[in-house]
Design goal:
The protein is an alpha/beta fold. The chain is about 45% helix and about 10% strand. It has a single domain, classed as Uracil-DNA glycosylase-like domain (Uracil-DNA Glycosylase, subunit E). The protein has 10 helices and 6 strands, in the order H-H-E-E-H-H-E-H-E-H-H-E-E-H-H-H.
Length: about 200
């Protein structure tokens, strides 16, 4: 992605008023990281601290994400991090369908232009963009082809902070990420069906 194109995207997000979240935000949060990243993380929406700083994943969930990246030898600058919604929903309520629809073109642009080898969908809203009407608890940890991208669903770090079993699953899925990045492109399409970890779906 050329730097000029990217800067233009950031400018458009910062000036965006396509949904009502624009009225209450302090800062929009377009995303950050390497434009040559092999892996892109897609979370849900900015929270309190993200809205204050204009940066993704800088609160408690963000600390966990940073820690998990560190555990596999990656720094935040090595990857690209963004969200489904670029503006904070009031009181961190769940995203509404209209907000997701309004904001989606920015994410699509990021996916297309950064074109990562692996897209990590963090949590059910992010996962639902790629595979609607499926349970994240069943899908997590299994890489799936989506158009020309490889989507790797995981639990959201905020959910993992509330539930120890989800945290164990998240850590497990992170450990498999370096191998997945390395092998991306040569994975069989139906690998998901053969994954032995399906029993963890009970923990959704
Ligand atoms: N949770 C998210 O989904 N995204 C953030 O940026 C922070 C917390
Ligand atoms: Fe625009 Fe997305 Fe922010 Fe809504 S959430 S105002 S669509 S950038």
């Amino acid at each position: 992605m050329s730097t000029a194109t990217y800067e233009d995207l950031v400018r458009r997000v910062n000036a965006c008023a396509k949904c009502t979240l624009a009225q209450k935000r302090n800062r929009a949060v377009p995303g950050e990281g390497s434009l040559d990243a092999d892996v892109m993380f897609v979370g849900e929406a900015p929270g309190y601290y993200e809205d204050q700083e204009g940066r993704p994943f800088v609160g408690r969930a963000g600390n966990l994400l940073t820690e998990l990246l560190d555990s596999i030898g990656l720094r935040r600058e090595d990857v690209y991090i963004t969200n489904m919604l670029k503006c904070r929903p009031p009181n961190n309520r769940d995203p509404l369908p209209g907000e997701i629809a309004a904001c989606q073109p920015y994410l699509d642009e990021q996916l297309e232009t950064i074109s990562p080898k692996v897209v990590v969908a963090l949590g059910r809203y992010s996962f639902a963009k790629f595979f609607p009407n499926e349970a994240i608890g069943k899908a997590r940890g299994k890489p799936r082809r989506w158009n020309n991208l490889l989507v790797y669903p995981m639990y959201h770090p905020a959910a993992a902070l509330r539930n120890g079993r989800l945290r164990v699953a998240l850590e497990e899925d992170f450990r498999a990420l370096p191998g997945l990045i390395r092998d991306a492109g040569s994975l069989p399409v139906d690998q998901a069906e053969e994954d032995p970890r399906q029993q963890l779906s009970l923990f959704e």
